[in-house]
């Protein structure tokens, strides 16, 4: 991102002037998805590059070219599709400010990663998190559960690969990282990684222990998400983690059991909606909501929802026969 250093935001009048200047310069850029129609996209680049209009324009232009080539809004994670549970990183709720909240646990994920698979899953996650955001609240929150953290998962190469894509093409999207169940090992890795990122990005990490975890959760999250996170973290910290937790993409058979797919409000607002508006509509040959416009949950949750329909159809056919 921008050179390391401390910068102060210009006053509101100057911010408006620089935004107008960036809008004027961007008018001739190719923009098939309407990226430039959202002023908050332009503001992110100005804020991410310390209100330097020249740099913000060059970075914005590069992102538009990258988006036209990669088409990240159509991104899937083939690694999760081919090996369920490859990545555990998933959206699980919305915080009090309206920011998407994502959760990851090393206990629930693969043991070996590459820069390519991490980037692919990050694109899927970020593009779908955007669909839950209000235009003016364009950041998201990551709850990083370090239980089960291994040496291979701490490779600086992996972190740099993801940071490069996020810093170059999603500036100012990260609102906060809440690190829990971390040890000295993680702290050492983090001290080294901070050398490669903008201080503003590094300052978004909040390491929490003990009672500070619940204090942070109460400050940021609605009650159902706070309770869900505590239970999810507790279950993933067990010496022998259950299959229900390892296969976090499956709906629990017992309606009263903890649902590892996400908080109750997230399940009802996004997973159940995806099932109704996309999966069932496909099955009934009805006109579906264009999938690029609706929030898509974790790839394996989508697979499980489709498998559920197939199982029901199969059972119905068997009964008829």
From TrEMBL:
InterPro entries: CRAL-TRIO_dom, CRAL-TRIO_dom_sf, CRAL/TRIO_N_dom, CRAL/TRIO_N_dom_sf, PI_Transfer_CRAL-TRIO. Residues 92-233 form the CRAL-TRIO domain. It holds the Pfam family CRAL_TRIO. SMART domains: CRAL_TRIO_N (SM01100), SEC14 (SM00516). GO terms for molecular function: phosphatidylinositol transfer activity. PANTHER family: GH16843P. This is CRAL-TRIO domain-containing protein. It comes from Patiria miniata.
């Amino acid at each position: 991102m921008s050179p390391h250093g401390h910068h102060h935001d210009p006053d509101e009048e100057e911010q408006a002037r620089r935004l107008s200047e960036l809008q004027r310069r961007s008018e001739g850029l190719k923009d098939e998805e309407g990226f430039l129609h959202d002023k908050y996209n332009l503001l992110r680049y100005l804020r991410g590059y310390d209100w330097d209009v020249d740099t913000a324009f060059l970075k914005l232009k590069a992102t538009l070219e990258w988006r036209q080539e990669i088409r990240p809004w159509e991104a899937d994670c083939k690694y999760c599709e081919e090996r369920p549970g490859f990545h555990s990183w998933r959206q699980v709720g919305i915080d009090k400010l309206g920011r998407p909240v994502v959760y990851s646990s090393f206990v629930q994920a693969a043991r070996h990663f590459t820069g390519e698979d991490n980037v692919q899953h990050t694109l899927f996650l970020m593009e779908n998190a955007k669909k839950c955001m209000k235009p003016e609240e364009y950041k998201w929150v990551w709850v990083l559960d370090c239980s089960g953290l291994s040496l291979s998962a701490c490779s600086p190469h992996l972190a740099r690969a993801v940071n490069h894509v996020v810093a170059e093409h999603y500036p100012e999207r990260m609102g906060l990282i809440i690190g829990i169940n971390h040890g000295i090992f993680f702290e050492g890795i983090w001290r080294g990684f901070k050398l490669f990122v903008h201080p503003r990005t590094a300052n978004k990490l909040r390491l929490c222990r003990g009672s500070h975890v619940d204090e942070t959760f109460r400050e940021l999250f609605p009650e159902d998400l706070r309770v869900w996170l505590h239970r999810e973290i507790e279950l993933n910290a067990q010496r022998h983690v259950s299959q229900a937790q390892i296969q976090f993409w499956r709906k629990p058979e017992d309606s009263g059991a903890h649902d590892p797919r996400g908080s109750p409000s997230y399940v009802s607002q996004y997973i159940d909606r995806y099932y109704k508006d996309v999966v069932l509509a496909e099955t009934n040959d009805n006109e579906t909501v264009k999938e690029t416009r609706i929030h898509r949950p974790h790839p394996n949750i989508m697979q499980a929802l489709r498998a559920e329909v197939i199982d029901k159809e199969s059972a119905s056919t068997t009964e008829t026969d």
